[in-house]
Design a protein that fits this description.
With 351 residues, this protein is α/β, with parallel strands linked by helices. The protein has 3 domains: 1-50; 54-112 and 272-351, no CATH class; 114-225, no CATH class. The protein contains 12 helices and 8 strands. It has helices at residues 2-49, 60-69, 74-79, 94-97, 105-110, 133-150, 188-196, 249-270, 289-293, 301-311, 315-329, 332-350, and strands spanning 122-128, 153-160, 170-173, 183-187, 204-211, 214-216, 226-229, 234-238. The strands form 2 sheets. A 5-stranded mixed sheet has the order 2-1-5-8-7, sandwiched between helices. Strands 3-4-6 form a 3-stranded mixed sheet. Helix 6 crosses helix 8, helix 6 (133-150) runs antiparallel to helix 11 and helix 11 packs antiparallel against helix 12. The longest helix has 48 residues, at 2-49. It starts with a helix and ends with a helix. Residues 1-12 and 34-47 have low confidence and may be disordered. The structure holds zinc ion (ZN) (2 copies). Residues 276, 279, 281, 283, 299-300, 302-303 line the site of one zinc ion.
């Protein structure tokens, strides 16, 4: 049995050797073609697997170009034509001092940001301390702007008196040459953790504290304009450094513009938006008053796409409402820009 089996094997081997000798050249050629094909297929799939991500890009400019190329929804895609790329970074700018990778729309969606749902429906405002008549007017107008901008109802809670803030959560600063007086500051950590967080209503998309008193986030810091916690859905900001709205109409508009700017920027953070690095945009970080004053009160197409996805309010609907409001509030630059944006969308739709 074993012998017969061996013979069979021997016979097969002989045939194979003879076959190889006769057709060697053809076999070599076929192998070469197969090898090339395998390498090509493998190479393609390997390079496809090496996906370009924001983190993999080295420079800020490469990251910005990558973000601007991202395909957005049709309305935001059309709006790209009206927006200015982010200007080159100068010493002292936010991006000069802070490393930022930016955030694409796709990443934003993947991160499952905070936003309205079946339970969370409102933005709440917690006033802290008192306000002058003009400051109160500015707060009411800011609330109106927020309402239309986010497509959410905004509710005011009863004011929290300054007398309830303990001495270890406030301090007095010596006269600031610009402000020409001694002034009080409140410790943000206390207000965030002891006033806002325990009082955040269940149906709150966000709870925001507004105060007319200056703020400090750390005993070593001089001051802060505002602060927000994405995870806890709370934010706090002060209008103390936004100028004196009672000085005249120009100062009133300046204070209003600054207050709305902070409100829309910080609420954007609470809705999961990171700083923008692609365009000149309200979601860009600011290192100084001069830098924040250089921003207009609107989002770039990429940030607007995030807001549209999150709040389900289309850009056109948002523009229509904001045009009327900006006209009422005498925010001329914004009224003009939203009108231009809406006209562009109408023209694209009619084509
Ligand atoms: Zn910010
Ligand atoms: Zn942006």
């Amino acid at each position: 049995m074993l012998e017969r089996f061996s013979v069979v094997i021997y016979d097969k081997k002989s045939i194979t050797v003879a076959f190889l000798k006769k057709y060697w050249d053809y076999i070599s050629l076929i192998c070469l073609v197969c090898l090339t094909t395998v390498l090509f297929v493998f190479g393609t799939s390997a390079s496809a697997g090496k996906k370009v991500t924001l983190k993999s890009l080295k420079t800020l400019e490469e990251k910005a170009i990558f973000l601007r190329k991202e395909k957005l929804g049709s309305q935001c895609e059309h709006l790209k034509a009206l927006h200015q790329n982010r200007k080159a970074v100068k010493p002292g700018d936010w991006l000069h001092e802070h490393h930022e990778d930016g955030q694409s729309f796709a990443t934003y969606v993947k991160e499952r940001p905070n936003g309205p749902d079946k339970v969370k429906k409102f933005i709440y405002i917690q006033l802290i301390g008192g306000f002058t008549k003009d400051q109160s007017k500015i707060l009411d107008q800011t609330i109106e702007y927020m309402q239309l901008s986010f497509g959410l109802s905004v509710k005011k809670l009863a004011a929290f008196p300054l007398s309830k803030i303990p001495a270890n959560a406030r301090r007095t600063r010596r006269g600031d040459p610009r402000l020409n007086n001694d002034y009080e500051q409140l410790y943000t950590k206390f207000i965030m953790n002891k006033v806002l967080l325990p009082n955040r209503p269940k149906d709150a998309v966000a709870l925001i504290g507004f105060t007319g008193t200056d703020l400090y986030p750390d005993p070593n810091w001089n001051f802060v304009f505002g602060i927000a916690s994405l995870r806890q859905r709370i934010g706090l900001w002060s209008i103390y450094r936004n100028g004196n709205p009672s000085k005249g109409p120009k100062e009133f508009i300046q204070c209003l513009r600054r207050t709305i700017g902070t409100a829309i920027h910080e609420t954007g953070h609470i809705l999961g938006m990171q700083h923008c690095i692609a365009y000149e945009c309200l979601m860009c970080g600011s290192n100084s008053r001069q830098e924040s004053d250089s921003r207009e009160l609107y989002y770039c197409p990429s940030c607007l796409q995030k807001l549209t996805w999150n709040t389900k309010v289309s850009p056109a609907t948002r523009f229509k409402k904001l045009i009327k409001l900006c006209n009422k509030l005498k925010l001329d630059r914004e009224e003009k820009f939203f009108t231009k944006s809406l006209e562009l969308l109408k023209n694209k739709n009619s084509k």
